[in-house]
Specification:
single chain, about 210 residues, alpha/beta, six-stranded mixed beta sheet, 6 strands, globular
């Protein structure tokens, strides 16, 4: 049976608006971010969502709650969906992180195994978040021919998608972060060949939504 996964990035925060790096700081949605969540909710209502799971950080949790009100579904929270821990970069602006070396953030974006000082790499994030989906595949009975909505963060969604698609580590940078309150859609189908070989995930849409 086909299983669809929708990965929604949270709405805008004041940190997003001022190019400040959040990581796992528990920042809140701006009023624009709340409106973005309200705007995308009717779009998601038409997508057959049967379950909502969200990061427990406020910006994702509140986005999920706004959407859930329209879908008339409960929200469960999972800390494994938190954003990348950015270590010493958290709370700093892009300019402050760049400092004397303007290439450091580009190196981070293009090297999935590299982590900011005292932070996580993209591979670390993928390994943390992937079990959330694997456990849903095994235990959530209502998923067949329906969609599960995960509400999370740009870095987490990019890393998780790369893992689900079985990309080579060198290919992880191909997945650019979603815009605020935009989403990706994936579908899992049984693998061809011998029985019990699991599923193959396919990317159906990326960076979809109303945010431009």
């Amino acid at each position: 049976m086909a299983r669809r996964l929708i990965l929604l990035r949270h709405g805008q925060t004041t940190y997003n608006a001022t190019s400040r790096m959040q990581g796992q700081l528990d920042t809140e949605l701006s009023e624009e971010g709340r409106q973005q969540a309200r705007n995308i909710a009717p779009v998601l209502t038409e997508m057959g969502v049967a379950k909502i799971v969200a990061s427990d950080l406020s910006r994702a949790a509140v986005t999920a709650q706004i959407v859930a009100e329209h879908l008339e579904l409960p929200v469960t929270y999972d800390a494994r969906l938190r954003e990348t821990h950015l270590g010493q970069w958290q709370g700093k602006t892009h300019a402050e992180v760049d400092g004397a070396d303007g290439s450091v953030r580009a190196h981070w974006r293009n090297t999935p195994t590299w982590a900011p000082p005292e932070g996580e790499s993209r591979i670390d994030v993928a390994q943390r978040a992937r079990p959330v989906v694997d456990e849903l595949m095994e235990h959530f009975d209502g998923w067949d021919d329906a969609a599960v909505l995960l509400v999370a963060h740009g870095g987490t969604i990019a890393a998780l998608t790369s893992s689900l698609l079985d990309l080579e580590i060198s290919q992880y940078p191909m997945m650019k972060s979603l815009r605020n309150a935009n989403f990706a859609q994936l579908q899992a189908l049984p693998r061809y060949g011998e029985p019990d070989t699991g599923v193959q995930w396919y990317l159906e849409a990326w960076n979809q939504g109303l945010t431009v």
